[in-house]
Amino acid sequence: MERLVLERSAVGILDEEIAQQLTDLGYRSPMGLVVLPSTARGIRLKHGIFQTRSQSHPRRIEGASPFKGASRCMIVSAQTQNVGGNYLQAV
Q1: Rounded to two decimals, what is the model's pTM?
Q2: Residue 44, domain member (yes or no)
Q3: Are 39 and 57 a contacting pair, CB within 8 Å?
Q4: How many domains does the chain have?
Q5: Nearest one of 17, 11, 59 to 41, comparing CA atoms
Protein backbone atom coordinates (compact mmCIF):
# COMPACT_ATOMS: atom_id res chain seq x y z
CA MET A 1 0.00 0.00 0.00
CA GLU A 2 2.82 2.39 0.86
CA ARG A 3 4.42 1.90 -2.56
CA LEU A 4 1.10 2.65 -4.27
CA VAL A 5 0.64 5.85 -2.27
CA LEU A 6 4.16 7.01 -3.15
CA GLU A 7 3.75 6.20 -6.85
CA ARG A 8 0.45 8.06 -7.08
CA SER A 9 1.69 11.02 -5.03
CA ALA A 10 4.74 11.37 -7.26
CA VAL A 11 2.51 12.02 -10.27
CA GLY A 12 0.38 14.58 -8.42
CA ILE A 13 -2.73 12.62 -7.47
CA LEU A 14 -4.44 14.11 -4.40
CA ASP A 15 -4.72 12.21 -1.11
CA GLU A 16 -8.50 11.89 -1.36
CA GLU A 17 -8.27 10.26 -4.77
CA ILE A 18 -5.42 7.98 -3.69
CA ALA A 19 -7.47 6.87 -0.68
CA GLN A 20 -10.47 6.11 -2.90
CA GLN A 21 -8.34 4.16 -5.39
CA LEU A 22 -6.80 2.08 -2.60
CA THR A 23 -10.24 1.40 -1.11
CA ASP A 24 -11.42 0.25 -4.55
CA LEU A 25 -8.42 -2.12 -4.69
CA GLY A 26 -9.50 -3.66 -1.37
CA TYR A 27 -7.18 -1.88 1.02
CA ARG A 28 -8.50 -0.36 4.24
CA SER A 29 -7.28 1.65 7.23
CA PRO A 30 -6.62 -0.29 10.45
CA MET A 31 -9.78 0.94 12.19
CA GLY A 32 -12.16 1.23 9.25
CA LEU A 33 -13.52 -0.27 6.07
CA VAL A 34 -11.97 2.36 3.82
CA VAL A 35 -8.57 4.01 3.40
CA LEU A 36 -8.71 7.51 4.84
CA PRO A 37 -7.12 10.47 3.07
CA SER A 38 -5.14 11.09 6.28
CA THR A 39 -3.57 7.63 5.88
CA ALA A 40 -2.36 8.52 2.39
CA ARG A 41 -1.22 11.95 3.61
CA GLY A 42 0.73 10.44 6.51
CA ILE A 43 2.57 8.01 4.24
CA ARG A 44 3.30 10.76 1.71
CA LEU A 45 4.63 13.20 4.30
CA LYS A 46 6.71 10.50 6.02
CA HIS A 47 8.60 10.18 2.74
CA GLY A 48 8.95 13.95 2.22
CA ILE A 49 6.52 14.25 -0.69
CA PHE A 50 4.64 17.55 -0.44
CA GLN A 51 1.61 18.58 -2.47
CA THR A 52 2.20 22.29 -1.90
CA ARG A 53 5.25 24.28 -0.88
CA SER A 54 3.48 25.43 2.30
CA GLN A 55 3.61 21.85 3.62
CA SER A 56 7.37 21.95 3.51
CA HIS A 57 9.21 23.24 6.55
CA PRO A 58 12.82 22.32 5.86
CA ARG A 59 14.93 21.66 8.92
CA ARG A 60 18.05 22.97 7.23
CA ILE A 61 18.15 25.82 4.72
CA GLU A 62 21.23 25.82 2.51
CA GLY A 63 23.58 28.66 3.40
CA ALA A 64 21.84 29.48 6.69
CA SER A 65 23.34 28.81 10.08
CA PRO A 66 21.44 27.04 12.81
CA PHE A 67 20.86 29.13 15.95
CA LYS A 68 23.96 27.81 17.71
CA GLY A 69 26.10 28.74 14.75
CA ALA A 70 24.47 32.13 14.43
CA SER A 71 25.04 32.90 18.10
CA ARG A 72 28.76 32.36 17.63
CA CYS A 73 28.76 35.00 14.91
CA MET A 74 26.96 37.63 16.97
CA ILE A 75 28.93 40.49 18.46
CA VAL A 76 27.93 41.38 22.02
CA SER A 77 29.17 44.60 23.55
CA ALA A 78 31.42 44.36 26.59
CA GLN A 79 28.77 45.88 28.88
CA THR A 80 25.87 44.06 30.50
CA GLN A 81 22.69 44.13 28.44
CA ASN A 82 19.13 43.79 29.72
CA VAL A 83 17.18 41.52 27.38
CA GLY A 84 13.57 40.87 28.38
CA GLY A 85 14.32 41.19 32.10
CA ASN A 86 17.27 38.80 31.90
CA TYR A 87 20.75 40.20 32.20
CA LEU A 88 23.41 38.95 29.86
CA GLN A 89 27.07 39.53 30.59
CA ALA A 90 29.50 39.44 27.70
CA VAL A 91 32.48 37.23 28.32
Answers
A1: 0.57
A2: yes
A3: no
A4: 1
A5: 17
